[in-house]
């Protein structure tokens, strides 16, 4: 125990300066990330957020076209969701020797919205926890060991979720991961069937649209065909709708495009509207009973914070708003408009390789620059991101496993005028060219280095 403890109060933290904030983050959280944020001049100190807008401590506003990587379908701090959480604040915050009545209501709603007989819900706090729940459910049900997933897939950062992920850099750092986990090319039914023929696969886990892989859409009908193959060989199909769920792709769930009916669906991110973390793994009664339907097993899917009243309140209100305001239809409409505008941009700028995705989950893939080597390739997206933020007030990022694919993933409440502003800003950025972007980025970075204490 330290003799002289000096803590920072909430009020002091709230009032801290931009410099103090980033230095504390650098010293105690993530030095590498802090250095990169500072170098690119994207270490803004945001003091308020509402809808699509962020506001910094200098009074500047920014439109958020990253939307918490799909968590902010309703935008920042949706008032109705905040009010629902406040109204639930008098309920027992954690009740493990009993039950929270909001859990049953939320689970009933999910059962009503999801296809087939997906009626049983297990609760977690983050997406990766729901992935773990799904994997454990598949093993407990099937008594098989093997999991199949896809190259370039992203399912989270816990150990099991990493094991069914497809990113080599995670495997390189954290390996060896769990045994009996194998990957196949995304969208390749022949490879899937080859793996399933052994009769030892517990489940095939897949994203309906690969998110962090770069907004990659599978061939039409692929998910339904994958469902049929899994059932032919006795494996379960797990669909990870963490980033695609609740309207993001232009349907309430992306599985609707192929009419797929999975055995387990995983949901998180936008389910809590970015207000309180919540995640769920939803399966059938048949699977749940075989996996957990006994006195010595029913509690194997219970966690301390899973399904707490605040999280359930946020989710119940989020679902209500999503359906009431037809945000799925809105995402389809604005998504089509956005894609058309971005395709026009592609025809104008050779730096753009491809526009892809569904609804408002879009990716702008960049051509690798022919000059500058690996260093320029590595920094191309950060240069564009920095330019958009500092010169046009547009916040975006790239997909984690695809550093040459920019996100175009705003809240589903975005307007066409806001889309126009973002596309016009991208047009201005691309018009500078690789050399112009590189020169501006280098000048800004050098200036920040010189000014640093």
TrEMBL record:
Protein name, per record: Ornithine/acetylornithine aminotransferase
GO molecular function, a single term: putrescine--2-oxoglutarate transaminase activity
Enzyme Commission identifier(s): 2.6.1.82
Xref: InterPro entries: Aminotrans_3 (IPR005814), Aminotrans_3_PPA_site (IPR049704), Class-III_PLP-dep_AT (IPR050103), PyrdxlP-dep_Trfase (IPR015424), PyrdxlP-dep_Trfase_major (IPR015421), PyrdxlP-dep_Trfase_small (IPR015422)
Leading EC class: transferase
Named cofactor requirement(s): pyridoxal 5'-phosphate
Highest taxon in the source lineage: Archaea
Annotated family: Belongs to the class-III pyridoxal-phosphate-dependent aminotransferase family.
Leader sequence segment: none
Keyword list, A-Z: Aminotransferase, Pyridoxal phosphate, Transferase
